[in-house]
Amino acid sequence: MQVLAPAKLNLGLRILGRRADGYHEIESVFAPLDLADQIELEIGEAERPEVTLALAGAAAGVPADATNLAVQAAAEFLAAAGLARAVRIRLTKSIPAAAGLGGGSSDAGAVLRALAASFPDAIGAPALAHLALELGADVPYFLAPCPARVGGIGERIQPLADFAPLTCLLANPGVPLSTAAVFAAFDADPTPSPRALDPELGLDLANDLEPAALRLCPAIAPLRERLRAAGARAVGLSGSGSTLFGLFPDAAQAARALARAGFARPVWARVAESRKAG
User: Fold this and answer.
1) pLDDT band at residue 192, thresholds of 50, 70 and 90?
2) Annotated catalytic residue: which of 107, 138, 204, 208?
3) Among 8, 37, 93, 208, which one carries the catalytic annotation?
4) How far apart are CA 202 and CA 127, in angstroms?
5) Could you give the angle at the alpha carbon of 243 between the alpha carbons of 239 and 246, nearest 5°?
6) Could you point out which of 64, 73, 82, 222 has its C-alpha 20 to 30 Å from the C-alpha of 128?
7) Domains with residue ranges and CATH for the chain
8) Beta strand 50-57 with 85-93: parallel, antiparallel or unpaired?
9) Which residues have CB under 8 Å from 180's CB, separation 6+?
10) Over the stretch 56-66, which tens digit does the pLDDT of each residue have?
11) pLDDT at 278
12) Which of these, 250, 254, 251, lies nearest to 263 by C-alpha position?
């Protein structure tokens, strides 16, 4: 079985508060992108549940052991369903790790989708959603990725059927940012970002985590300016960073901007487009 695990873009991110369990209540718009990891699953008979992982592609910084979210997702599904199966996962990475694009969460969601399709009577939808949330706050979104308004800690998902397609230029300074570290930095100085309304989308693109991410990764600031200089109509930070996005009217203009910007290593950059479904 083959399945795609799309990256997601945060079009704005507001932190509404911190719960007693340490999770943060958020408000954001998520959009799946055509940038995606590829996952191949082989499922075989076994005396006991067993999950193995093989990594390929741009896998720098991605764990290859039981801490990988894709492995955890498969293991938790088998345990919850009471299935003794051998699940072999081949994960080809295209989404950079610790970049604010949801790569690990998307991998986990894709594995859960694939296993739920293979064993449709094993786990009901509410139990699957609960299992996804236990794996991580973004994982429930990736059970059915589509443009959506997301709230709570990530479990309240309202699809946006009339969401207009968008084209963006993604740029990452080559510095991975731990989500936990960025949230800790935010908690130390929880100053909200000023509004950044994009009139075409009608969305506030401000990200309350950007000041914290900037303190941990100062390279975000000059990269933001380079995207503006390249002609982006608006620039924002996705998730906890360190990936920035610049919005463009179409892929041709975004590609020209990418060529003009002349990004060189360690910066990672590419044109991406949103999808109605991941």
Assistant:
1) confident
2) 138
3) 8
4) 35
5) 100
6) 64
7) 2-157 (3.30.230.10), 167-273 (3.30.70.890)
8) parallel
9) none
10) 998 889 999 99
11) 81
12) 254
